Amino acid sequence: MTGLSGRVAVITGASRGIGLGIARRFVEEGAKVCITARKADGLEAAVGALGGPANATFVAGRADDPAHRAETVRHATEVFGPPDVLVNNTGINPVYGDHLTACLAVELAPAVRVNAVAPAVVKTRFATALYEAREEEVAARYPMRRLGVPRDVAGAVAFLASGDAGWITGQTLVVDGGVTLARRSG
Q1: Which runs of consecutive H residues, i.e. helices, occur in the chain?
Q2: Contact yes or no for 125/150 (Cβ under 8 A)
Q3: How high is the pLDDT of residue 142?
Q4: For the residues 1-8, what does the mean pLDDT come to?
Q5: Mean pLDDT over residues 138-143, rounded?
Q6: Statement: 8-185 belongs to CATH 3.40.50.720
Q7: How many other β-carbons are positioned within 10 Å of the β-carbon of residue 149?
């Protein structure tokens, strides 16, 4: 896989879970990644899991801190070159975030494509409380009869960041094992 070869990506919330899964997929497809999260120790381990400094670097800090964001872009640029992909893998409040993707897609086009991925329950430490001790019961509600794993989301994000999605902008790709369809028909 080389769909992201030569790209430089900044991926937030990437010390574990979905963010680390996305970073892993990007590296597999030839990208260099600068990952962020709050704690340096988790980021150091993640860089190791991604093949070391030849593939990944990190900046610890909070995604809502403008100084951290500026430092991340500066660091990524120094290490790998200017970033051309941003994966904002930090949680948002859906009430305030419902039309942001579409608005930014219109505002930033044609130079920048903006898309979102909306996953259902993904088996991560963050989501454990949603399925712990009852995974079979929760998974039974999904047409795919399983919960998601970080790799499921990573594939969708890699596609949207690739040239294969070059004419897609302003869209939210639902990655949910069909659970929203089951709710509508049930």
Answers
A1: 17-28, 40-49, 66-80, 94-97, 100-108, 135-139, 150-161, 179-185
A2: no
A3: 96
A4: 85
A5: 96
A6: yes
A7: 14
